[in-house]
Structure formats: C-alpha cells, structure tokens
Amino acid sequence: MKPDLHAEVNKNSAFLDRELSQLMFNRRVLAQAEDKSIPLLERLRYLCIASSNLDEFFEVRVASLLAAGAGDGALSSHPALVATLSRISNECHALVTDQYELLNTQILPEMAAHGIHLVRHNERNDAQRSWVKEYFDTEVRPLLTPIGLDPAHPFPQVVNKSLNFIVQLGGKDAFGRGTAIAIVKAPRVLPRVIRLPDHLSKSGGMSFCLLSSVIHAHISDLFAGREVIGYSQFRVTRDSDLWVDEDEVKNLRQALKGELVGRQFGASVRLEVAMNCPPELSQFLLDQFGLHQSRLYAVNGPVNLVRLNEIMDHVHNPELRFPPFFPGQAYKPGNQDIFAALRENDILLHHPYQSFQTVIDFIRSAAFDPAVVAIKQTIYRTGMNSDLMESLIIAARAGKEVTVIVELKARFDEEANINWADKLEQAGAQVVYGVVGLKTHAKVALVIRREEGKLRYYAHLGTGNYHPTTTKFYTDFGLLTCHPGMSQEVNEVFIHLTSLTKPHRLTHLWLAPFALQNEIIKAIRNEARIARAGRPGRIIVKINALVDESVIRALYAASKDGVKIDLIVRGACTLKPGVPGLSENIKVRSVIGRFLEHSRIYYFRNDLAHDTYLASADWMSRNLFRRIEVAFPILDKALKRRVMAEGLTPYLKDNMNAWELEADGHYQRRKARSKQVHFSAQQHLMETLGTPNAHLGE
C-alpha cells in the first residue's frame, strides 16, 4: 500500500476512511498467510479467507458505493465518490497482486516441497496429460455448452462469482459465418480442484489440477474445425445485497425467496480474467458487463482463490495444520440439571475455548422438560444443520409455546433462515420476522418453566450467533442466567419484537435502536466526568468495528478530559488514535490469530464499580440505529473478573498477534522486545480454558 494513501484523504479529517480501514483488515489477514511460523495449510486457508473477504467487500461495500453514485445521475457527477473508488481500486489491485505473488512464490512451492503438487498443463508428464484428457472427455465435456455469440445467441447470463471462459475463434462456423467469440460456462456441479490418482504422483505425494486448467488444456476440442486464437477464464462479481420494499410486500419470506434467485445476477462490480487474456477479449467483457477499466483484475492464477480450500479436504498431514484443540466444559451436568445449576449461579461461556454444547443442551433440555411451558429465541445465523433448531421443532410438536424471531435478511444466510422458518411453522411454532426496516441482530433465548405454581425465567444472552460451526472458530461470550430482573427484561424484548409495542423501560439491558447509543455515550461521558474530578477514568472496549461518528466524538472528548482508553477493534476503525489535542489517551489495536475475534465487550471503570457489558452490537451506526441489538451487564463480581481476565487483559498484553493502529490509518505489528516473554492471547486462553492434556497450539 502507498504510504500516503490514508493521509492524502484524511489529513484534515478527524476520521479515517472506512473502506480503506476495512481493506487494512484484509492486509492483516494476508499477513497471517505470509507468516512462516504458521503451518503451511493454515497459511493457505488465510489466503483463501483474504480472497473471500475481498469478494464480499466488492459484493457489498463497493456495490453500495457504485449504487449510490448511480442513484441520481452519472458517477462522474460525484467527484468525492469517484476519488474514493479510485483509492479503493488502487489498494484492491495491490492486494490482489500480493495475494497471487504469495501463492506462486511461497505457498505452492512449499506445498510441493511437502509432496502436494498443483500441476498446470505445461507441468504435467505424459501419463498425467493422458489421465486429464480422459477426465475431460468423460466427466467435463458432456456437461459443457459452448455458446457462439451471434444475434440468435446473445451474451449469456453469467452467475455471480462463477467460473467461465471466453474464446476468440478464427475461420468460419458450420454455417459459413465468421462468429468470432464464444462463451463456455464451467459446470457448477464439478469440483474445482481435482485429485489425480496416487500412481500419477511422485512417491508418497499427491497431485491436483484445477478444473480451469483441465478446460483450458482442451478448449480447442470444443470447437472442431475452428482455430482458437485466444481465450481466458473469467469471473464477474456482482452486487449481492438483497433489497425488498418491506413497506409494500405482504409476505417478506416469499419476497426474499424471489430475490435470492436475482442475487446471482445483480449489477456487475468487478471482472477477473487470466493475466494472459488478450486485451480485446477483456475489453469485450468489460463492455458486456458495463464496467470501467479500473474494475478489471488480471490475475496470475485461478480467478477464484477461495476454491483452493478444497485441497485441504484431501490433505491430512497434521504437521501442516494447527494442532487440534479441544474446548473445555464450563458446565458439567453431573446429578444436577442445568436449571437447578442456574438457580445457584450464572454460567459464563467463552467460545470456542469452552464448548457451545452447553447452549445446545440448555435448549434441548427445555424441549423435553415437562415443566417448561415456553421457549423464545432469536435467530440471525444458525446454518443449514442445527441441533438447536431441531430442538425447537421438537418442543413445538410437544405442544410448548415456541416463538422464534428469524432474521430473514441475515446476509448470505437468507436461504438457510427461510428454510428453518418453514420447518418451524410446520411444527407449530410462532415465527416472526422481526421489525420492518430493522435487522434483528440480538442473540437471546428465553425458557419459561412452571415451578411451584409460578413461572420462572431462564435466559441465554450472547455476543455471537447460534451457529454450531462458527462457535468452533469465532471467539464469543455467552451468559446463562435466571436473574429475575435480567431474564424478565429478555421477555420484554421478545414481547416488543412480536407485538411491535414500545418496550417497557429496561433497567439492565441496553436495547438498540432505542437506548444503546445513548447509554454508551452516557457511560463514556461519565468516565470523562470522573477524570475531570481528578479520579481515574478508564474505558476498555473490544468490538469488531468502530465507525459511528457520535461515539467516536464522545471518545475524543473523554480522551481530552484524561480518560485512558484502550480499544481492541478487529476490523474497520475510523477513529484516529494518538493525535495530540484530540486522542492522545486513546490506543487502538487489532488481534488476528487462529480464531476470529468476534466478542463485544464494553468496560467502564466507573469509580471501581467496574461496569462490564457484553453485547451483540459493534459501534457502527447500523448497529446502534438500524438493528435490534442487546447489550447486557455482567452482575456477578467473579464473572466480571473472568471477562476482564479472559476477554480484555490478554489482548492488551498480546505481542504476537496484535497490530497497533497509527493516526495515519496504518497498522504496525506489535513484536516482543528483546528478553520480553512472547505472549499470545489466544494461545493463553486455549491453555487456560481448553481440555487439559489436549495437544494445543496456534
């Protein structure tokens, strides 16, 4: 990245550029792929993650900027937007170049040294070429439908991020016409990474080839009697945000089902071609997709790096992966059921270091417990296969009152959520789709039991999704409690979401969009008041993103009053730390490690009251004003100490995976000084909370 990229746009601003900050996060992910201390296949995985992140950046962020520019005239009439898109383009091109340089000069050669070969056509021996030819003839060619372009065969619809080929032909077609361009779509049912038989690999190793390479090698076979003058693989990235007018549609679920099909053909935002693609072909594609030359990415390798993940499904060499990690158990049933345990003490869960199974068991126990009369739960992401959803279905079929608030517009999880909504309704559950215009992002569940003639409430509140897969590699906190005040307020939130009435005044929970932003700013200002009075003011926050200007301004003001502020922000951060007269008491760091940092923690010292909140919300305007979010306090003093000891202090000590943000928007990796003990927060937590005697490592 150019050293002056941030400075050039932000030298007179109190805020950093959001899009560039998001791309800097991707730089930090790519740095993991470059780190030779990390096992080789994990480095490949980080490279794939960086590529996937960039895909989503184009599908969402770049797409939204382009849509904003197109909304009221030509893009050229928005010079500030054009300048922003130009800066984004420069950095994205640099990122893509670095990704493929890393792949070709480090990752693939080191994989080959370990007997894992990705063989291109010109690298295959005669036996390998013969096998690939047979594979093409028997498995690939029958599924291909080459389309020669003419007035009767216009340019075909190209699915978002799909693999395609453009071919330039010489000579005449079968009807004596000089059709010059053909398009070939790669079948989506075929694997993108193909393993060759072991006898065709070097002794003890394994060899792979890409579907794109197989088609490239035999593309002339598709055009008998024609000369293939030039060709290239290509992939187009499209706007993938779903939009429906929620005020107009009568059935949001049915409307979204229709939109899911259209998502594959949203507005084009990026074109990727092979580096050796003839210029006239890439220009032809740009014209077809209505893209500017700056949206073209000519890459030195496969147009979709994410597909290289498939190699890891075949390679089982433990030396090339992180050592296995086995989560600890925060709650062991023994002779006591979970409800009896909660009547004695709250249970704090820290995933993935502690098993998510406790949450699954909580809902499953409720489904089968005859004393349970009702279960309520929000669903943002849960995946296609979910024990939690199956338990809710069982509970509904058993006649319990089951209410599920399903967020149908959880980006890229819409289809799974629609499917679960259908199944839950069929089982007799009451399914609600949240509030029109607002995403329900809160992570809360409630179980109501009849005990000794009275109703008792048991709640789970979390910082992450009810998704059993992501809980294995996202860091998140969850709280199980039957605290009367807090659990009854959880019920008030559900009543608010289903009835659409104004929520009652909440004493414990901070609910967005009604109170969360105001409570955060009030807590920040309280620390500033304490500091002005000469007492220590202290704020520590761990979130995924910080871009809301109202909160940032409050932090700037608190810094001027002497409050010491540490912000642990994994992704985009538009606050400028360490600026004299503005933010000299603020430090910002980002931790990138084996697990994805996802927990949200707000800590305010408050004259030794140590106010500690866990939340579903980052400090972004969308979370504070356009989503249903819940922040909840940790009331038990011992659990407060745990949140500090596990969720904050280790991350402030980390000198292996931490990056510190500078005022100009760049990040510097923090390194242990000479004679200083190397400390990784994630490694520390695995060793502290994981199952004893398991093989641990990062």
UniProtKB/TrEMBL annotation:
Active site per UniProt: 441 (phosphohistidine intermediate)
Binding site for Mg(2+): 381, 411
Record EC number: 2.7.4.1
Entry keyword Nucleotide-binding: yes
Name of this chain's protein: Polyphosphate kinase
A Gene Ontology molecular function term of the record: polyphosphate kinase activity
Residues annotated for ATP binding in this entry: 53, 474, 570, 598
Residues of the Polyphosphate kinase C-terminal domain: 337-501, 509-682
Reaction catalyzed: [phosphate](n) + ATP = [phosphate](n+1) + ADP
Recorded superkingdom: Bacteria
Keyword Ribonucleoprotein carried by entry: no
Organism: Duganella levis
Key words of the record: ATP-binding, Kinase, Magnesium, Metal-binding, Nucleotide-binding, Phosphoprotein, Transferase
Mod. after translation: An intermediate of this reaction is the autophosphorylated ppk in which a phosphate is covalently linked to a histidine residue through a N-P bond.
